[in-house]
Amino acid sequence: MKNCKDVECMIIPYLNGQISERKMQKFIDHVMECPSCYEEMEIGYMATIGLERLEKGASINIEEEMKRMLEQSRKQIRLHTQIHRVSVLVNVGAMLGVAYTLIYQISIWCGFHMPF
Ligand SMILES: [Zn+2]
Questions:
Q1: SS (HEC) of the chain
Q2: How high is the pLDDT of residue 59?
Q3: Which residues, by Cβ under 5 Å, contact ligand 1, an ion?
Q4: Residues of the chain with pLDDT under 70
């Protein structure tokens, strides 16, 4: 698990959408568990997104919005992990298919029968 200092350095990049998903997962896991980093993130949120919003005269509910943001990031990470898993399976399947075809070809050329 990352320590608080590492996580604090990631707050602004996270809010700006500038960190990779791999880092984001560790970041979110930590922020959800660590009250002091969560607080740091609230400050960061206020200083970036919050300020922008207030300049436009819109209201802001930091607690609500941050929860939603973290939840959304989690969903995004989960979805991408699933897509990644499926694509790995497809690749393995395709490779097995190619290997089987190759062995089948060789078996025809060499005149032996496939045992499967
Ligand atoms: Zn922390």
A1: CCCHHHHHHHHHHHHCCCCCHHHHHHHHHHHHHCHHHHHHHHHHHHHHHHHHHHHCCCCCCHHHHHHHHHHHHHHHHHHHHHHHHHHHHHHHHHHHHHHHHHHHHHHHHHCCCCCC
A2: 87
A3: 4, 34, 37
A4: 1-2, 114-116
